[in-house]
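Narrative of activities, Objective 1.

The group set out to show that a structural description can be obtained from nothing but a protein's sequence at a throughput compatible with the screening campaign. Below is one input-output pair from the validation batch, recorded exactly as produced.
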Amino acid sequence: MDPITESQLLVNRRYFFGRAATGLGMAALASMLGKDAFGGESGLGRIAPKAKRVIYLFQNGAPSHVELFDHKPELTRRHGQPVPESYLAGKRFSTMTGNASGKKLLAPLEPFHARGRSGATVSELMPYTAAIADELCFVKSMFTEQVNHAPAINFFLSGNPLPGRPTLGSWLSYGLGTLNENLPTFVAMTSVSKDTTCGQIFYDFYWGSGFLPSRHQGVKLHPGRDPVLFLNNPPGVSPALRRDMLDGIARLNQQKLDDFGDPEISTRIAQYEMAHRMQTSVPELADISGEPKEVLDMYGPQVHQPGSYARNCLLARRLIERGTRFVQLMHAGWDQHKSLTTELYTQCRDTDQPSAALVRDLKMRGLLEDTLVIWGGEFGRTPFIQGDFNDRPNWGRDHHPYAFSLWMAGGGVKAGLTHGETDELGFNVVKDGVHVHDFQATLLHLLGIDHEKLTYKFQGRHYRLTDVHGKVVKALLA
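Output recorded for this entry:
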């Protein structure tokens, strides 16, 4: 008898149950749970969810909290004075700041006002956001551990500064499963303001699945005629021929799956089928010609430009409306080291109206209640100037991890709330601080997941989004 045949006959107990898990056991589980539930992770310590979906408006480059949301009159009073040494002790800044001693405090460029019934302070740079202040939950006491962009963004999205961990959307795809078999569970879109000097790069690991099965990877939508690359049939290939090809490939992959039980083969089969269904669902999604004029006008003139932040905001609403669970919309250009007096105005003009329109649009359609919208960057910016105080056209602010702001809307957060507080200069958090892991734990809680229970075993260790940290900030919950 040849050794391969002999090995197959001598099936041991572990091999048998391992094979059974990918065969009859999986089929039985699928029939008990139902098709829609299959794919979500059980045993998560489920909590009654407030939100079903998330739209994360991630502002790459770090918006200046003291310029937009965190009003500090003391900065105006001390404009041009050196930062007190007591604020700098033990602080770490990016290499662009150099020696922070002697840096001069810089007043915000535009006035702040208390907005709505809530009295939340918002700069005149953000008039559309100011108009919906009572719908928003401001967190003005965020802080992080990272001082440079890529590690800080990755820390927010994956819980670790280094690439290789699953990101938020991937964790939710793994934990909760899909809401629509014809569209990806996790979608990413990117945009950047025209003519910006910001050098932010959109790395693919910002929407990566890390060590989770690759079916949980974010799918990036591109502007233009082909939102998903290589989705359309090439010339000369009919839909019927494509269907025959996919069926043949599926049979070959199934043979390998039966032989080896590798979950990545199962993922490959599923992704081929998803791509086939997306040939119909994605073009319909990307076609905004049926949107009413008043809706398009609400998002602003740039909604007609494919790839713009405004168009992506509208597509985000269309995606969650059709069952996508997590939309990660990333917009670069906020890294104003020497362009506060120029590019900051451009960034606010490009993002303010569409962000507010998205919240209003969701509310009008009854979707805001169970859709969590998040707006924010990876850290804040220094209350002191970077550059020559006498050269106003080149004023800038450096990276600042010690205090910054973000806002949320819908999805079970308290509307009209301002949570947390920084000191008189917006330098340090002095009340109700919210660490990045606390933010992640709270987000999962809103989606009905105990952050300590959503784990995945990899290389002998059970990993989770919040690592071994994080607490739910209950004050933010409606």
